[in-house]
Amino acid sequence: MTKEEHIRQLMSDPIYAIMGNAELSLGRSNIDAARQLIEAGVTIIQYREKHKTWREKYAEATAIAKLCHDHKVTFIMNDSVDLAIACGADGIHVGQDDAPATVVRRLAGPDVVIGVSTNTIDEMKQALADGADYVGFGPMFPTASKKDAHEVVSDEAKHFALHFSLPVVTIGGISLENIGSLYKEGFRSFAMISAIVGKEDMTAAVQELRNALKA
Ligand code: 3NM
């Protein structure tokens, strides 16, 4: 798939699953988690593994990237530009302390999707100026999944995000109980860890989230 097709997928499928760290995934291996996510019909998967060695991550991310490509699933690597390039990821998602999008672009080339985590209006504007393809925006709600998470986004930043020119992927504490409220506010894309890989039956979890968006 081309970069444009991946971005279209990101804009048309509201569910963006983040996997990694077994403790957030009921002890599943990352390969099992990826397989189950694909079976559950997820089309955007981010690999966010904070514990393993480079070689361990390289081995499993390469396998997961192949699985994703075989199923037309967009595969995004968190943080690590070199791993993303090495395993053939479709995209790279960077935080405010990682390489800026300008540098990621220089290293990874024009064909990779770049996402940047943002919490404020200034960070969204900077991500746009730096050539990001989408922004992560959050946390929308308190979350236990990220130790150094910021304060929940301000109403002013939410308003800005709803009119922003780049695709906005909301993140942070999104659940079956609150996803509908974000949808009603106008948000259309939702990245989740605990609400998907934190559930025993991921197929049911994804289906329930999709149903909540239709309700
Ligand atoms: N980034 P859960 S919040 C990885 O605000 C991440 O940028 C965030 O996990 C941000 O869906 C977060 O379990 C954790 O809350 C998301």
From TrEMBL:
Entry EC no(s): 2.5.1.3
Gene Ontology biological process terms, A to Z: thiamine biosynthetic process; thiamine diphosphate biosynthetic process
Key words of the record: Magnesium, Metal-binding, Thiamine biosynthesis, Transferase
Necessary cofactors: Mg(2+)
Superkingdom, natural source: Bacteria
Gene: thiE
A GO term for molecular function: thiamine-phosphate diphosphorylase activity
Pathway: Cofactor biosynthesis; thiamine diphosphate biosynthesis; thiamine phosphate from 4-amino-2-methyl-5-diphosphomethylpyrimidine and 4-methyl-5-(2-phosphoethyl)-thiazole: step 1/1
Protein purpose: Condenses 4-methyl-5-(beta-hydroxyethyl)thiazole monophosphate (THZ-P) and 2-methyl-4-amino-5-hydroxymethyl pyrimidine pyrophosphate (HMP-PP) to form thiamine monophosphate (TMP).
NCBIfam families: thiE
Residue sites binding Mg(2+) per the record: 79, 98
Chain positions recorded as 4-amino-2-methyl-5-(diphosphooxymethyl)pyrimidine binding sites: 46-50, 78, 117, 146
Residues binding 2-[(2R,5Z)-2-carboxy-4-methylthiazol-5(2H)-ylidene]ethyl phosphate, per UniProt: 143-145, 173, 193-194
Cofactor info, note text: Binds 1 Mg(2+) ion per subunit.
This protein's name: Thiamine-phosphate synthase
Family affiliation: Belongs to the thiamine-phosphate synthase family.
A GO cellular-component term linked to this record: cytoplasm
Cited Pfam families: TMP-TENI (PF02581)
Domain called Thiamine phosphate synthase/TenI: residue spans: 15-196
Catalytic activity reported: 4-methyl-5-(2-phosphooxyethyl)-thiazole + 4-amino-2-methyl-5-(diphosphooxymethyl)pyrimidine + H(+) = thiamine phosphate + diphosphate; 2-(2-carboxy-4-methylthiazol-5-yl)ethyl phosphate + 4-amino-2-methyl-5-(diphosphooxymethyl)pyrimidine + 2 H(+) = thiamine phosphate + CO2 + diphosphate; 2-[(2R,5Z)-2-carboxy-4-methylthiazol-5(2H)-ylidene]ethyl phosphate + 4-amino-2-methyl-5-(diphosphooxymethyl)pyrimidine + 2 H(+) = thiamine phosphate + CO2 + diphosphate
